[in-house]
Amino acid sequence: MTSGTRPSLFSCCLPVAAAKPDAPAASAASDKPAAAAAQTPAAPSPKKVHVVVHSLWGHIKAVGEEIVAGLKAEGVDAKLWQVPETLPKEVLDKMHAQTFDLPVIKPDDLVEADGILFGLATRYGGANAQIRAFLDSTGSLFASSALDGKFAGIFTSTSTQHGGVETTALSFVPVFAHLGMIFVPFGFKSGQIFGHGEVHGASPWGAGTIAPSDGSRNVSDLEKEIAREQGKRFAGVVNRLK
């Protein structure tokens, strides 16, 4: 036996100290909240709505801007577009038509939207030629059912109080039927078009304005209010999509 401290006779009977838990085990527990957060689904992208107009003197554009404001107030990604012009410049100049800094829509642009609202100037109780010409260029979308199931709406402008508001809207609905789109009317729920104290161009079909060809009348505050409400109501329908 070597020299040194002699071991105790009872050392074999002493309890052994319990091992401390490994540090990684503690960190694993702290990682659980982070893992749970990583599994939280991302917020859905906002629904997209295109507001498509043709406007000679700015009335339909003004109504469209209010509709866009109503859509955006409900969290919708809304954008105002204009259709291509079909009249030559010399004719437009004689009509004192205005020009607007709006993007010109192409048929394929419609596909990316969840809903589309069309601003129609009336011509002989129907939609104006520029809107009709644009729709005539959507044949490939019809053939591929690219717009099927998308929501659609209407707003109008007429030169007189009874200048074809309802006939223009009614004659446009078959376009939606052929394209498989779902028409969303403005309706009467908001109560804004029940009043008789002020002339306005709205109807249960959609918002609207009265725009005499002499330029003597602008879009009224009531017509703007109704247009914003149509945007909000249309957004409420589009936002139901999952």
TrEMBL record:
SUPFAM superfamilies xref list: Flavoproteins
PROSITE patterns given for it? Answer: FLAVODOXIN_LIKE
Q: Identify the InterPro entries for this entry.
A: Flavodoxin/NO_synth (IPR008254), Flavoprotein-like_sf (IPR029039), Flavoprotein_WrbA-like (IPR010089), FMN_Rdtase-like_dom (IPR005025)
Which residue range or ranges hold the Flavodoxin-like domain?
49-234
Task: Give the domain of life.
Answer: Eukaryota
Q: Which family does it belong to?
A: Belongs to the WrbA family.
Would you tell me the protein name for this molecule? Answer: Flavodoxin-like domain-containing protein
Species for this entry: Polyrhizophydium stewartii
**Lineage in the entry?**
Eukaryota, Fungi, Fungi incertae sedis, Chytridiomycota, Chytridiomycota incertae sedis
